[in-house]
Every structure is written in structure tokens, then in C-alpha cells.
Write a structure and sequence with these properties.
single chain; alpha/beta; 7-stranded beta/alpha barrel; 10-stranded mixed sheet; two-stranded antiparallel ribbon; globular
Length: 489
Amino acid sequence: MSDLPEYLDNLPNLCGQEAAIEQAIAAARGRPLYLGQDGIDFTRVKSAFANALHMHQPLIPAGGGDLRTAEIISNLQYMMENQGIGDNHNAPVFHWCYKRIGEFVPQLVHEGKQPRIMLEYSGTLFHGLRKMGLHDVFDALRPVTCDPAYRHCVEWLGAPWGHAVAPSTPVQDFRLHVRAWQHHFAAIFGLEALTRVRGFSPSEMALPNHPDVAYAFVKTLVDAGYQWVLVQEHTVEEPADGRHPRRPHLPHRLVCTNSAGATASIIALVKTQGSDTKLVAQMQPYYEARSLGRVELAGTSVPPLVTQVADGENGGVMMNEFPGKFMDAMRESSHSETPAMNGTEYLEHLFAMGITEADLPVVQPLFQRQIWERMQPGEGPEKLARVIDELGRSGQRFHMEGGSWTSDLSWVRGYDHVLKPMEEASAAFYDNIIKPGIPTADPRYRNALFHLLSAETSCYRYWGEGLWTDYGRELCRRTQAIVESDVKP
């Protein structure tokens, strides 16, 4: 299986090898990764827990004094070079956080333990680290990603390359983010490693709840070969009554139907609510799992899975407390009735018991029950728009702005000054690149794509004002300038 170059024309490899990637993923589909190799006897497991670490640094136009000409650099580089400002003194610790799993896991394996962790790194972080010359991060992560002695302990999760939030990113662009991350990851760690990336972690745990956007989101993941996705407990509902999942420690099926009547579904592992970094840093999912016992699913007794995800570098508890707590919990849980298990590993064992995807309880994005009470799938986008408008004016608790890790944060409302330039850049990319049919392997395509995806990071809308807004608008301006002047068929 041939590998891909990591850089082309001084840009990360984000596009152009779609056929090779699709072929590799398709060839590996259905091939078990853990059964018989992970040392876990699922028949005696009472419960299990899974933790994921999310890592991200945006790219910003801060490599110089003039915003319009400043080099695009990693925010981590800016922190490193300006450690006297705010919390930038944390930059060296962040650097260590990005590579330390590569140190912890081999140590635990050599002790005879069974460590497990899931990792999700944005593409902008990968590029920023490489551009800074922090090759030690990749050197530390490569063995736990590729070496058969360790790779069963660390499961990588796919992500949008530029850390774009799905509810407010144009659906065609979100698909580009998903494909770009696969290119970049395969170019760093190899195509074979990419075929083992079966789960997906949405940026900010933001799940679209507009039926047409949610359907496109799930279809994008399925088309890219993903088997499951992480969802936040309070962003989904049970179709029958609109309640949050009653059994969040079991896998579900996320089923999304659009206004045209088409349906797409994917397995969902439910991240329960809570203070993410504190819960993961102190390994609370392990202690919660210890209080649980096997439950019934489709007439079979199965162990529940407590699932959490958190930033892997942000916050004092994650920077300082996680290492010791992780090592202690892994040592204690190994070979116990409550082991650490990664998402795909758990699902493989579950399905080996005879459970099928059809046996899993169904969830859908939040507030969709209210829509389908007022219209039928297939009645079209115009009817959907009218229903959404009526519900929005009804005074009920209802919105179509997506759900994320915090229930009071909208990824749409109040961000017009950022979203409008993003939409204009996206439209320019479509009109000048996609529509004329410029090949994805063309350097002009790659250059424009790099700028577009960098501009769509969530950071620019999360902060919503000040310098970060200026950064976002400038990246959008550059994208538009590139596609309208430099890229002509």
C-alpha cells in the first residue's frame, strides 16, 4: 500500500489522491482491528470506559506586523514567540501535551498493562506543528499509531481538517474538510493507518439539527468510510418523545432524514454531559463505569460504555493532573472487570456477540421531532422552511442552529460579521474552482483549498469579536483573492 507525500508545493497534502484513499478504505472495510488481539475477555467485562482527547490549534495570519501580508502561522507558534502575553506561557506545556500519549502508552504496555485512549487532532494543528519544526511530536506518536505492539491501544478519530463546526459550515465545504483530514493523516502516518480510523469526532461536538444539514453531515461521514460518530448527550433526542437518550451508555443509531425523504444513518457513541476537561483529566469515566453493571440489549447481556471527550491540552487539570491520573487509572483498570476500551474495539466485541446495528436504539438531532410532527419527509425544502419559521415564532424552545458542547452557544446567531465573509469565500471557491472543474490535484486547487479550510475554523466564530474576527475575515479575504485572481481555468 503506497504512501502519500506529506507536502506538495510547500502545502500539506489535502487533496488529489481521493481514488487511492477511497480504495484503501474500501479494501479494509469489515476487517476487524481488535478481536483476538487486544487481550480483553468481553464475556467477563462488567462495564467499560472510553476517553478521547481533542487537540487543536488554528492557523492565524500573525507572522508579521501587517495583517494583510502576515505569514499564516500556528497559534501555538505565536504563543511560543509571545510567552509574556496572557496565558501564552502555557505553550511549552501544550507542546508536551501533543506528544505525551506517545510516551505514556509504551511505558504502560511494557508494564504489562492495557492502556487505551482515543486521539483527535485537527489538520491545522498537524500543519502548525510540522511547520514549527516540532517533529518530536510526530516521532512520539508514530509508534503508538503504527507499531503493532502499541497501535491497538490508541485509536485515532477523524475530524474536519480546519476544525469547522458542522451546523454553520456549508455542507459542500464540510465534505472537503473531512476528505482533507483523511489525505493529511494518511500522508503523515500512512494509508494503512488511515484504514484503521473508523470513528469521527465533530469539532466542538457540534451536531447539525436542521434536517437537510444533518442528513448531509451523516452522509458525508458514511461516504468517507466512517462507521461511527461521537455525539453529545443533549444534542440528540429519541424520536418517540423528544427526550434525551435514556440509555446513554449504549451505542445508538443516529438516523437523519432530509426534506426530500432521503435517510442516512451511522452508529453514535454518546458522550455524556459534564465538565469535559475535569472529567477526563481526573479519569471520572472509569469511576463512573465501575458503578455500572451489564445491561440487556436485544435479549443479550452487554457491558455499558461510559464515553467522554475533552481538550487534551487546555486547562490546569488537563495540563497537570491528567498524566498521573491516566497512569493510575490504566494500571488499576487493566485486566479488571471495568477495562478501558476504545470505541471501535468496544463495537467489534459487541457485534461479535451477535448484536447488530439494527438492534441499537435510535436517536435523531435535537428538535427534529417537532418538525416531523408538522410535515412529512419528502414534502420538500420549501415546506421545511415554512415549518421551521412557524416553530421559531411559536415561542417554544426551538432553534435550527445545531447543538454543541454548551447548550447556550449558537454557532450562527450573532456571527454575521464572520459568517458572511466565510460564505462569500465559499461561494467564490465553488464558482471559480469546483464549477469549472479544476482537478483536485492541481496546485491552484490545493492552495485555494488550504486557505478556505483554514478560514473556516470554529475559533473565529467562537470568540466573535476583536482580533480573532480580524484573523478570520483576513483569511476569507485571501481565499477570495486567490480563487478570483490566481485560479482561472
